[in-house]
Amino acid sequence: MIHPARIQVLSGGPLGGGQYVLYWMQASVRTRLNHALEYAVQQANELGLPLVTAFVLTPGYPEANERSYLFLLEGLRDVERRLRERGIGFVLRLGHPPEEVLKLGRAARLVVTDRAYLQPSRAWRGWLAERLDVPLIQVESDAVVPIETASGKQEWAARTLRPKLHKLMDEFLVPLEEGEVKTRSLGLLEGVDASDPRRLLDTLDIDRSVPPGLERGGEDKAQTRLSDFVRHGLDHYDERRNDPLVDGASRLSAYLHFGHLSPIDAVLRAREHGGAGLDAFTEELVVRRELSFNLCFYNPHYADYAGLPEWSRATLAEHAGDKRDHLYGRAELEAAQTHDPYWNAAQRQMVRTGRMHNYLRMYWGKKVLEWSATPQDAYTVLVQLNNKYETDGRNANSYAGINWVFGTHDRPWARRPIFGTVRYMAASGLKRKFDADAYAKKWE
């Protein structure tokens, strides 16, 4: 059963006279534990209609490049195959998502979609809701607790959201059965072939400046990674996750970002296994991740310096004229040409692999703030570099992490040059956590 709080009517009205139910898949690019998909299956079965699933690919999406496109296409390949096994037709179209869905929706009885967290995708759904002549139903599937259910305002920090989530978590952390499709829809509509991601990638007019990262996308790879982490990494997650030399992190972020993995699936599997790392894993996957959703939902300036807390902008402005011992522009930072071997190593890891270790990301951001002419310049560069190279870039977690560098979800600390009362990080802190020199040597 799907919790009613997951279901929102974006536009109501009577059912259309179309020949199918349409599921517009855009955020939850998977078939396992996908509430939007299963809700659409239920609706199609009740109406005695076939179900068609559609995804619209946008070549030239801002800040997307070959790295992010291939990861996404690998997910679409898995979706197409698994939906076919269930008798559900899958249609991949190229173009502007709401416009293409509007065309498909004209022949639908109703349209179901998944939930978006960032403004561009939320705007797509709003645009479609104003123009669609049939009901548009949004079903939350990528947060454990739906955003508005967890909190009705922007939360100050993890400590203010955590008790609210813990109070509700068990109510929403429940398995979801795959419904049997009563009316098959294979071949009902035609679209672009998604079975060969690399071949399809070669046909797209996209940014080719960043090659694919090391990890491969898709829900099959996501399940393999989750299983491997639960078996071999969860027991030690609490003590190893901050050491980039032992690979103690879950490495699930990109799969969650592209919707290839359900967070509910991950938590339930971790709970079944148990172990010392369970609480720390739940904190990161539920509390910290959904704190970022809260930020992006309630703060319209989540991707802008103006969206930072008033206290942090004030203290940074007060220290904007402080002497900087080192100043670097974007080109030097992007090429990892600073005096700091640890920062350079983190930047190289991100550029080469598509992933920077989470603890290093904090240090990486703090140093850019320290080495930039203004905090506004630092903010712009961090967003640009993160979104260009991180496989999980353009993500609520990414924006929350960058904003944390400047004081969001944190508190004032002891005053110091440049930072004012915003938290500072030093290389000595890295050395207390792990062998920083060995890490720097690894990424020379």
Automatic annotation (TrEMBL):
Pfam families: DNA_photolyase. Keywords: DNA damage, DNA repair, DNA-binding, FAD, Flavoprotein, Lyase. PROSITE patterns: PHR_CRY_ALPHA_BETA (PS51645). GO terms for molecular function: deoxyribodipyrimidine photo-lyase activity; DNA binding. It catalyses: cyclobutadipyrimidine (in DNA) = 2 pyrimidine residues (in DNA). Signal peptide: none annotated. Its cofactor is FAD. The keyword tRNA processing does not apply. Residues 19-147 form the Photolyase/cryptochrome alpha/beta domain. It is an enzyme of class 4 (lyase). It comes from the Bacteria. GO terms for biological process: photoreactive repair. Its EC number is 4.1.99.3. Belongs to the DNA photolyase class-2 family. This is Deoxyribodipyrimidine photo-lyase. It comes from Deinococcus irradiatisoli.
